[in-house]
Amino acid sequence: MKKILAVSACLFLLLGSRAAYAGNSDFSLGTGYRSDKLDWNIAGDTTGHNPNVLSELKWESLKIFEIKAGFRTDLNKRQYLLGSFGFGWINDGTNQDSDYRGDNRTLEYSRSSNDADLGNVWDLSLGIGLNNNIRPNLSLNPVIGVSFHRQNLRIRNGFQTVATSGTPPVGPFAYLNSKYDANWYGPWAGIDVKYAAESLVYTGGLELHLARYLAEADWNLRTDLDHPKSFEHTALGGGVRANAGVRYAVTERLSLTGNAAYQRWMTMHGRDRTFFKNGTTADTRLNEVNWSSYDLSLGAGYSF
User: Among 28, 55, 151, 251, which residue is least crowded by beta carbons within 10 Å?
Assistant: First the structure.
């Protein structure tokens, strides 16, 4: 995270150096709909066995109201700076928590289906691009940057659907209010496309990300675990993000915008570390984490 902040500071210093160059700048602000899915599973030991999937959590159909801001500014005739920030409120979604005694998700002994209708998400990305005009109205620009993404997920209104001896009986159970906060951060490289056609400007991009994954959880009903940090996940991973947009010029400076984006991220094997109330810890293997998201937004842009 310190590296991300350092690189971000360098990019903002570059933005400050723009004062000596009278280039173009664009700012946009929009709002829209976003849908996310995130799942992870752990094994019974650090080698990935006993069983190979011990516990699995899934958050699905997360409906998110999001506000996004973005900018692009020329640093000189060849280079430009771009960035975006988004924040969203989760207002609907489901969670499933399953536990197994056998390999390959067999001998399931506990499952709960819960609400995931609270929480929030936010995203920050900064990059620097190199203008590469193929034609006067078409550019295909290489871009590098850094990004940070966070999902603050909640689990509540528990309902046990599979139960065996030692687990809650089938039916609703009270006071569930667990948290899982996931962070993805690291560098990326990609292509930024821009095509101008009279009053319309079409944009697109493809980004390949490397990421360090860090998540912390508070399982509030587990009296044997520590609070507010019951366990943590660490892993390395990556993702791909694709976006497309259109900008319609209402006046010389003001425009209307529409954008769509899809991203998919995953991790390699990592570590699950559990923190117990008595001060001890235990490690097992984090098999994988998967996150996917798409969003649609409308907004306005201003050029100066």
Answer: 251
Per-residue pLDDT reduced to its tens digit, 139-197:
999 999 999 999 999 999 999 999 998 788 999 999 999 999 999 999 999 999 999 99
Beta pairing, strands 231-249 & 171-197: unpaired
Structural domains in the chain (count) = 1
Residues 6+ apart with CB under 8 A from 301: 26, 27, 28, 29, 247, 254, 255, 256, 257
Q: What CATH number is attached to the domain comprising 37?
A: 2.40.128.90
pTM of the prediction?
A: 0.90
* Three-class DSSP labels, 193-215: EEEEECCEEEEEEEEEEEEEEEE
Q: What is the pLDDT of residues 200-234, one digit of tens each?
A: 999 999 999 999 999 999 999 999 999 999 999 99
Cα torsion angle, 124, 115, 215, 241, sign = negative
CA distance 211 to 187: 7
